[in-house]
Design a protein that fits this description.
The complex is a heterodimer. By secondary structure, chain A is α/β, with parallel strands linked by helices. Chain A has helices at about 30-40, 45-60, 70-75, 95-110, 120-135, 145-150, 150-160, 175-185, 205-215, 215-230, 245-250, 275-280, 320-325, 335-350, 355-365, 365-370, 390-395; strands at about 15, 20-25, 65-70, 80-85, 115-120, 135-145, 165, 190-195, 235-240, 260-265, 280-285, 290-295, 330-335, 375-380. Chain A has 17 helices and 14 strands. In chain A, strand 5, helix 5 (about 120-135) and strand 6 (about 135-145) form a beta-alpha-beta unit. Chain B is globular. The chains are: A alpha/beta, B alpha/beta.
């Protein structure tokens, strides 16, 4: 099966329909253009793509398996469930796919200093990892609240030689870490490359990060064709900024596969403690992009909540906003409690402890599976492993290790 | 009411550089902000930039982040900002510019924002997260009666300055150093070199220098190479610790104006 119709987004100005763009202070325009130029010149360059391919294979352990989840399939007694195993990537999540791509670009740009934001710490760990490997100085911005709930990842970053800078402004989570990273970049533009961790921010980041993450979807396509001789009926992935989702969706856009993004409903959509941006947000301009945004009636960005630090973000990648409006993908949400239950379910049926982010995708199966038929095929993206979340899960379940 | 460019030109013609002061609406207090703004004008400011707050001010350093957050805590939004504007305009003929981020404007309604800004007496608007790339996607012809002031920075090439100069109305805001507002100079001579380059490349507009200017001493160094200076963070910082009559802040305003 081929893509049914052409899908060529963003346009040359970085717009996905009305979304995306470059809503940034003037200082950043020149470095964004330099980044775009070098990326466009290298994306099809054989030497560059081979170097990345080799790193993905020999350093990161790609391709990651597509695992048939027979016990989980039996549990629901409906369609066949496959799991794309990004949890088996080096560093434990899909974030490394993007970090490796961008560190090669930083090297080509002659930058010596790398900055990044992180929520759950997975992108921070991936960035610290590639900086160690390539001998770059690494500074990770992380909200104080996230530092407390992901302390294991904070230590991993430090062990890898990165400096973790606590962010005390605003809600002290991912959004504020991103603001601080952008402010750092504006100030240190000449020697610094900013490795954004998701498909957010100004052009070319949403496009570039998508391209680096689309290795997930490309492999999935090949693996499911080998296993089932056809495309899946459904692909399910969690959405915070949305990089793992766009990575697995992208090669399947316009191919007839139902693409489902699952957002974090936190304590519930009827409370103000959630981050279901595509479900309850509206158009806004934020962190360099036009996209769906959770905001109050004055256009002030909302303080949001998810048990999963990686989904705890009031915006979303502009391409997801576009895919939603164009009905090329559907977006739903599940609560903290549903994500915790899904973590237990996947752990006990398949022996896989997913990251709390990925558990949101698993949790949506409760709603989706009853609608499937036995002959349906589903792929769920397990974007990361759950080791980093054990403290949070333990506290939530009231377990004591003593 | 004179246009901003005409006003700057007249000041320049009598041998003065203009001094524009940035205040965050409703900071430090909600109740006497109008009086504060009028005092600043009395103390020597030629123009006023009134910042309307945003929760995520990307281009701002810690001081203006603090004033924005305080303003938000004080319940300031575009509606209250417009009511200050109306009160201040009643008492002065000097140019008043609204400054803030795109999202509150988008929410308020871009056309409604322009219509209200004009009817309450603003002369111009500065929205730092609308670069020329997004200019036509954001501004529409309801801004015809309002100067859209654009920024240039040390990373802006001369070719790009020409395009920005073409689009900008009122003046060109020259950001003297790459960084957020209130940034400290690492190398002031490099900033002065940029301002000289900028002034050479800008043909149509007057050039005002801001971001980093915090004292009369800074103002003396930059003023020969531009048509005026803008001070924000240093004023806000002074207001943070000032008495109820804003005595120290007014003396800072007078001191800077006296050297221009």
């Amino acid at each position: 099966m081929q893509q049914l119709t052409e899908y060529e987004f963003p346009d040359i100005n970085g717009h996905f329909g009305k979304y995306g763009g470059k809503y940034v202070p003037e200082t950043l325009i020149t470095p964004l253009r330099e980044l775009e130029e070098i990326y466009l010149s290298l994306r099809n360059d054989e030497e560059f793509t081979n170097e990345l391919l080799k790193l993905n294979k020999e350093y990161s352990g790609r391709p990651t398996p597509l695992t048939f989840a027979d016990s989980l399939t039996d549990y629901y007694g409906k369609g066949k469930i496959y799991l794309k195993r990004e949890d088996l990537c080096h560093t434990g999540a899909h974030k490394i796919n993007n970090a490796l791509g961008q560190i090669l670009l930083a090297k080509k740009l002659g930058k010596k200093r790398i900055i990044a934001e992180t929520g759950a710490g997975q992108h921070g760990v991936a960035t610290a990892t590639v900086c160690a490997k390539f001998g770059m100085k690494c500074f990770i911005y992380m909200g104080e609240i996230d530092i407390a709930r992901q302390s294991l990842n904070v230590f991993r970053m430090k062990l890898l030689g990165a400096e973790v800078i606590p962010v005390k402004s605003g809600s002290r989570t991912l959004k504020d870490a991103t603001n601080e990273a952008i402010r750092d970049w504006v100030t240190n533009i000449s020697d610094t490359h900013y490795i954004i961790g998701s498909v957010v921010g100004p052009h070319p980041y949403p496009m570039m990060v998508r391209d680096f993450q689309s290795v997930i979807g490309k492999e999935t396509k090949q693996q499911i064709l080998e296993a089932e001789k056809r495309h899946p009926d459904y692909i399910v992935a969690c959405v915070g900024g949305g990089s793992n989702a766009i990575g697995i969706f992208y090669p399947f856009i316009n191919s007839g596969v139902k693409l489902i993004g699952v957002e974090a409903a936190g304590y519930g959509l009827d409370t103000d403690k959630h981050c279901a941006t595509l479900t309850l947000g509206r158009e806004g301009i934020f962190q360099g992009m036009k996209t769906y945004l959770l905001q109050n009636r004055d256009g002030q960005v909302s303080e949001v909540h998810s048990i999963s630090a990686g989904l705890d973000y009031p915006g979303v990648g502009p391409e997801h906003s576009f895919l939603k409006d164009e009905v090329k993908a559907d977006y739903y949400s599940v609560t903290d409690d549903e994500a915790i239950k899904a973590t237990q379910l996947l752990s006990r049926t398949e022996g896989i402890i997913p990251a709390l982010e990925s558990a949101h995708a698993i949790a949506y199966l409760e709603y989706l599976m009853p609608k499937t038929k036995k002959e349906d095929i589903l792929v769920v993206n397990v974007s990361g492993r759950g080791d980093k979340d054990l403290d949070t899960i333990k506290n939530k379940l009231g377990y004591s290790l003593e | 009411m004179k246009s901003i460019s005409k006003y700057i030109e007249e000041k320049n013609n009598i041998g003065e550089k203009v001094f524009s002061v940035f205040l965050t609406a409703g900071f430090p207090n909600k109740n006497n902000f109008t009086q504060l703004a009028l005092k600043v004008l009395d103390a020597g400011a030629d123009m006023l930039e009134i910042g309307f707050p945003f929760s995520d001010p990307l281009a701002d350093g810690t001081i203006i982040q603090y004033s924005s957050q305080t303003a938000l805590n004080n319940g300031i939004n575009l509606k209250t900002t417009f009511s200050y504007l109306k009160e201040i305009r009643r008492e002065t003929g000097k140019p008043i510019i609204l400054m803030g981020y795109a999202n509150p404007v988008l929410n308020y309604g871009v056309k409604r924002f322009a219509d209200d800004a004009i009817s309450y007496g603003a002369n111009g608007v500065i929205i730092p997260d609308i670069p020329i790339e997004e200019y036509d996607n954001f501004y529409n012809n309801s801004f015809n009666g309002l100067d859209t002031i654009l920024l240039i920075t040390p990373t802006t090439s001369n070719d790009r300055i020409k395009i920005i100069d073409d689009k900008s109305k009122g003046f060109i805001y020259c950001v003297s150093v790459s960084g957020t507002t209130g940034v400290q100079y690492q190398d002031k001579s490099r900033s002065i070199d940029f301002i000289k380059r900028a002034r050479n490349a800008v043909k149509k507009n007057k050039t005002l220098v801001g971001f980093g200017i915090s004292s009369a001493e800074d103002a003396i160094q930059f003023s020969p190479h531009c048509d005026g200076v803008i001070v924000g963070s240093a004023i806000i910082k002074s207001l943070m610790n000032d008495d109820s009559n804003f005595k120290n802040t007014m003396s800072l305003v007078s001191k800077i104006k006296n050297v221009l």
